[in-house]
Amino acid sequence: MNPAGGGVEVVVIATGVANLASVLAALRRAGADARVSRDAERVHRAERLVLPGVGAFGDAMRSLNDGGLAEALRRRIVLDRPTLAICVGHQVLFELSDESPGVAGVGVIAGRIGRLPGAVRVPQIGWNRVATSGSCRLLRPGFAFFSNSYCATSPPDGCDYATADHGGPFVAGIERGALTGLQCHPELSGAWGHDVLCRWLAQTRRPC
């Protein structure tokens, strides 16, 4: 087990649209004491939080709105508490998605999620190269595993970011203060994903 996480507690939100087993296993391999919860107060106050997700934007938001989880998530991100959002979890940080018209996201990142650009086969399932802007602290160049039809097609204002290309460039990850969003699946991304999780667990908080 990598000691980078130092046994730090990580709460993983049980959204009902996530492969929790693989996320928990990856966090524990990186050294975390990872536990699942749907308690809004625990989500708000957790030392570190992971929001996983697979499937549709609208389904994820319905799960988060049930029991006040979306508002708890919004409050902790405004307070700059360490939060990692994965795949659809990353997408719901934005305001809207073309996948689920009329469904509002958590809205802590300005912008809209759209379909992958170009006339490519979707969903994109498999490995893709990640490139990073020079200011990223956690994200590094390499290959990560993706499974998505939708994405952020342009980098949001105020964020450091990584990109990948599938029919055209799209946002593979973002960093803003203690918030990290990944369109890819670090839990399925081998050594690259393990290293990202270790760096996330070891990071020092800083203001936005």
Which short descriptors sum up this protein?
208 residues, alpha/beta, Rossmann fold, nine-stranded mixed β-sheet, three-stranded mixed β-sheet, 6 helices, 12 strands, 31% strand, disordered N terminus
Task: Report on this structure.
Helix content is 25%, strand content 31%. It is of the alpha/beta class. It has one domain (3-202): Class I glutamine amidotransferase (GATase) domain (Rossmann fold, 3-Layer(aba) Sandwich), CATH 3.40.50.880. The relative contact order is 0.17. Residues 1-6 have low confidence and may be disordered.
In short:
By secondary structure, the protein is of the alpha/beta class. It contains six helices and twelve strands.
Helix and strand layout, with pairings?
Layout: E1 9-13, H1 20-29, E2 33-37, H2 40-45, E3 49-51, H3 57-65, H4 69-78, E4 83-86, H5 88-91, E5 94-97, E6 109-115, E7 124-132, E8 142-148, E9 150-151, E10 160-165, E11 169-176, E12 179-182, H6 190-202
Parallel strand pairs: 1-2, 1-3, 3-4, 4-12, 5-6
Antiparallel strand pairs: 6-9, 7-8, 7-10, 10-11, 11-12
Compute the separation of the termini in Å. 31 Å
- Uncertain ranges: 1-6
Counting helices, strands and paired strands, the structural category is alpha/beta
Strand order of the largest sheet: 2-1-3-4-12-11-10-7-8
Please tell me how large the radius of gyration is: 15 Å
Number of strands: 12
Report the average pLDDT across residues. 91
**Whole-number tally of structural domains:** 1
Largest sheet properties: 9 strands, mixed
In CATH, the architecture is: 3-Layer(aba) Sandwich
What do we call the CATH homologous superfamily? Class I glutamine amidotransferase (GATase) domain
Which series of helices and strands comes N to C? EHEHEHHEHEEEEEEEEH
What proportion of the residues is helical, as a percent range? 25-40%
In one word, what is the shape? globular
